[in-house]
Amino acid sequence: MNVSPDSPARDDVLLLLDEHLADMFATSPAESVHALDHTALLAPTITFWTARDDDGTLLGCGALKELDGGSAGPDGTSAEIKSMRTAGHARGRGVASALLGAVLAEATRRGYERVSLETGAEDYFAAARRLYARHGFVECGPFGSYVLDPNSVFMTLELPAAELPATKLPATELPAAEPATADVPAGS
């Protein structure tokens, strides 16, 4: 499985994102759906990845959104995980873990102190909440522009300090992340 930066405007990615949005609106009230469409995922504050088989078949996607220009207030920088989705045919193969690993590695490389996310409170999202908890995320209160919502669960992960060059460049000026290869056993 290859995880690398990609465009959310590719035809196969558009289909996966449309499926993602349809499921979000089918399981949560419209005012509690915070998923982004492909045009929002093209914003300069968002880095988007896909996971693909060696033959190029799309397995999943995920994104990292810089919050408030990277600022989480006077004590650090933060980002948000967005649009994590595994294609139905690829579930149970470790796709989400591989994507999450790439996203967290990039967040650490950029020097973010924390990565947070919003997911649903409904049973449909239980597997996602378990995935994030396995990777060290803990529940927290609303962050960024979110407000308390009984249909949302907010989670955060404090990141280890990265060894940064003497001059920290804005995320838009950093070189593209290297593609990651993940050999994840089935069922992970």
**How many extended strands?**
8
Roughly what percent helix?
10-25%
* Number of distinct helices: 3
Radius of gyration: 16 Å
Walk across the major sheet and give the strand order.
Answer: 6-7-5-4-3-2-1-8
Mean pLDDT across all amino acids: 86
Distance between the termini: 13 Å
Oligomeric form of this entry?
Answer: single chain
Strand content: 25-35%
What is the element string, with H for helices and E for strands? EHEEEHEHEEE
Stretches with pLDDT under 50, minimum 5 residues: 70-75, 172-188
The main sheet comes to:
8 strands, mixed
* Apparent shape: globular
Task: Explain how this protein is built.
- The protein has helices at about 10-25, 95-110, 125-135, and strands spanning about 1-5, 45-50, 60-70, 75-85, 115-120, 140, 150-160, 180.
- The protein is of the alpha+beta class.
- Strands 6-7-5-4-3-2-1-8 form an 8-stranded mixed sheet, with helices on both faces.
- The radius of gyration is 16 Å and the shape is globular.
- The relative contact order is 0.19.
Element layout with pairings:
Elements: E1 2-5, H1 11-27, E2 46-52, E3 58-71, E4 77-86, H2 95-109, E5 114-120, H3 126-134, E6 138-140, E7 152-158, E8 180-181
Parallel strand pairs: 4-5
Antiparallel strand pairs: 1-2, 1-8, 2-3, 3-4, 5-7, 6-7
Summary?
Helices cover 22% and strands 29% of the residues.
Name the descriptors.
alpha+beta; 188 residues; 8-stranded mixed β-sheet; 8 strands
